[in-house]
Amino acid sequence: MARRPRLYLPDCPLHITQRGNNRDACFRDDSDYKTYLYLMREAVALYVVLIYAAISMPLNTLNYAALIYPKMNLSI
């Protein structure tokens, strides 16, 4: 069964989090983390979003949380 489309409200921020599977670490070493940051920068430029606040905690439970303002409907 297909999932329902996300509610998109223009000019309304989204809160995004990322966790490791089964509370595992998201990154095995520093190069994984640096690659992740590089890909995030690329995605921000490609999808035209503004990140107003971000916190990065490379521990195992919560890795990344961002308050973003998308300029279009995103499927995240």
In short:
This protein is an alpha+beta fold. It is built from 1 helix and 3 strands, in the order E-H-E-E.
Major sheet characteristics: 3 strands, antiparallel
The Cα radius of gyration reads 14 Å
Number of domains: 1
- The average pLDDT is 73
What is the global morphology? globular
Helicity range of the residues? 10-25%
Cα distance spanning the termini: 18 Å
Number of helices: 1
Helix-strand pattern: EHEE
Number of beta-strand segments: 3
Structural class: alpha+beta
Q: Which percent band covers the strand fraction?
A: 25-35%
Give the oligomeric state of the chains in this entry, treating copies of one chain as homo and distinct chains as hetero.
Answer: single chain
In what order do the strands lie side by side in the largest sheet?
A: 1-3-2
Uncertain spans: none
